[in-house]
Structure formats: C-alpha cells, structure tokens
Amino acid sequence: MLQGYIQAIKSSIPINSLIGLGASIGAAVLTLGLGMDTPWAPWDPLSETFYPPQLFTIASFVATICFLSMAVIVLKVLEKITNSATKLWRITGIIFLTVYGLISFGAGTFEAGIMLNLLHVIVGIPALILIPSVLDSQGTKTNQQLS
User: Fold this and answer.
1) What 3-state DSSP class applies to 41?
2) Which residues span the domain enclosing 48?
3) How do residues 45-60 score in pLDDT, each as one tens digit?
4) Using an 8 Å Cβ cutoff, are 9 and 73 in contact?
5) How far apart are CA 46 and CA 78, in angstroms?
6) Whole-angstrom distance, CA of residue 102 vs CA of residue 72
7) How big is the CA angle at 78 (ends 134 and 122), to the nearest 5 degrees?
8) For residue 50, what are the β-bridge partners?
9) What's the domain count of the chain?
10) pTM of this prediction?
C-alpha cells in the first residue's frame, strides 16, 4: 500500500534537494549576508531569543526537505481522490503560502516576517511548479495505482 508513496518520495528527492539548497542559499544570503532577523527560537518561547543565523540556514534545508516530502504525499493522496489533483494542490499551496505568510509576521520582528515570506516564496513557487511535473515524468502518477 505504501509502495507508491515511497516511490513518489524517492522520485522527488533530486528536486526536493535542489529546492532545499535554494532555501539554504536564500537563508544564508538573507540572514548572514544581509543580516536580517531570524524567527524566535522555539526552544525558548518565553523570551525573545532568535535562531542563530548559521543554525537557521542549516534548518532551512532540513525543514524544506521534510516539508516537500510531506507535500509529495499530499499530492499523491489528492491524485487518489480527485481528477484534478495538480490544480487543487497548487490552489491549496497558494492558500497555504498566503495564510502562513500572514502568520509569519508573528514569528519575531517585522523583518523576520519579511525574511520568512521571502524564503517561503523561494521554496513554494518552484515546488508548486516543478514537483507535479517531476512526478509525472517519473511515472509515479496514480493512474498506475498506488496500492
């Protein structure tokens, strides 16, 4: 039952890694290069401690890979339940980017919110465009049965 999902994740590893690299470079340029604020550190919620920029750069890569792997699974589930999965996936992705973009302004300073929004655009736009086409070209479309 899980074989189709595992195959889809394996097929998406190169593009997810490339997008993750873009996220890391974007985080490095924005935080280390331009000195923009990072979000509040989740391990210290009662203070105004920010992520260290170097850790945030590495975490951007890891978080991108994990998030995009889950996004691939969501796309595969949508393909199983609807005929217009890619369209629905892209619409919900845009809604997610918009809503999370607004919520990002609560992650620290206004500058940290802008930086997070820029990173989400760096990750989100390529993911919404490239992941469905990569999965289609790899033959992991659910027309082949995900059972």
Assistant:
1) coil
2) 3-144
3) 777 888 899 999 999 9
4) yes
5) 39
6) 24
7) 50
8) 40
9) 1
10) 0.84
